[in-house]
Amino acid sequence: MLKIADTTHFPPGHPQVAFGRIGVLLVNLGTPEATDYWSMRRYLKEFLSDPRVIEVNRVVWWLVLNLIVLTKRPGPKGKDYDTIWNKALDEGPLKTITRAQAEKLAAAITREDPRLIVDWAMRYGKPPIAERLEALQKQGCERILIVPLYPQYAAATTATVCDKAFDALKTMRWQPIVRIAPPWHDDPAYIENVCISLEAHLARLDFEPEVILASFHGVPKSYLEKGDPYHCHCMKTGRLMRERLEMSPERFRITFQSRFGTEEWLQPYTDKTVEALAKSGVKRLAIVNPGFTADCLETLEEIGGENREIFLHNGGEKFAAIPCLNDTEEGMRVIETVVRRELSGWMASRT
Length: 351
Ligand SMILES: C=CC1=C(C)c2cc3[nH]c(cc4nc(cc5[nH]c(cc1n2)c(C)c5CCC(=O)O)C(CCC(=O)O)=C4C)c(C)c3C=C
Ligand SMILES: [Fe+2]
Ligand SMILES: [Fe+2]
Prior knowledge:
The protein has helices at residues 37-48, 58-72, 74-82, 93-109, 129-138, 155-170, 188-204, 221-225, 230-245, 270-279, 297-313, 329-342, and strands at residues 21-30, 116-124, 141-148, 177-180, 211-217, 252-257, 284-288, 318-321. By secondary structure, it is of the alpha/beta class. Helix 1 (37-48) packs antiparallel against helix 2 and helix 7 packs antiparallel against helix 12 (329-342). Residues 29, 31, 44, 47-48, 53-54, 73, 77, 92, 94, 150, 154, 156-157, 217, 219, 230, 258, 260, 291-292, 296-298 line the site of ligand L6N33NVT. InterPro entries: Ferrochelatase, Ferrochelatase_AS, Ferrochelatase_C, Ferrochelatase_N.
């Protein structure tokens, strides 16, 4: 077994520094601390003030955000969060699931290399990236792998995690050496496990869906036009899933959800597609969310709640929202594959 660095043998007057460890930091988007108006407002303010998320003129956006969005949105969105809140732990499900993913990853990899420490953070809200990076560094992590938990790269998600992490590094005297895990939109382990999970859920349904939508979170269309690869990553994930599932493009379709604001977003829109399918006579529909590593407001409430309603109100009869990979065996296989690969050269080899 590898020896973990020892911090106890420093000469008098020498600072007590820890060293010799390797950190893995899983980072997801973030979620409000509570569902009341002020907690929601704080969360939305931090999120929607990020210029990677909203690429609108700063002065114009400051006025719109503060005068309109932050007065109108926190109330109704807080009520939406109430419907999915983890009451036992008093937190959003995104937090519960990200913590569970970190714990399971730690159990899987630290047995092999006890120098490893796994932690987790949120880009917006708590626990903040800077706090967890500092905690890893204080425990002796000279090397840290940061894993933005997004299979598809977008400036609004992956890049902003990196921005925040590098902001934290700027304040450190002894900076850890950092690696960032790349997106895994076309990784065979991801495609295989997301399909295994989908097939298992479909097999348990009491109906066979005529159509399956792979619904990804949208971004404004202008982000694609400016060169963001997010759309291409989603399209590739969707195509690889469809090929693996051996389904026709009519049965397995890609859509984009969670529109925000008045600009055009990536199309086809999930809600409009759901409505059109129901109106055209489709009676049985399933929606899977391959772009989300954890269930959250956008999957549980928007897909499982709003889109179900849209489908059933327009003539649909059977609807299934397929759970995300979360901390299931399939989900952990994906995260572990990415982490093991990106730790290569750092982590002790299994042989
Ligand atoms: C212009 C605004 C937004 C962009 C661009 C955007 C991109 C984006 N978001 C996710 C993942 C998630 N978003 C979630 C919630 C959420 N998203 C926005 C806005 C944009 N997202 C808002 C305002 C919210 C909060 C809820 C609301 O007010 O509507 C979540 C859920 C978080 C939770 O607590 O459950 C996730 C996850 C991706 C992957 C993405 C671009 C690729
Ligand atoms: Fe979002
Ligand atoms: Fe594309």
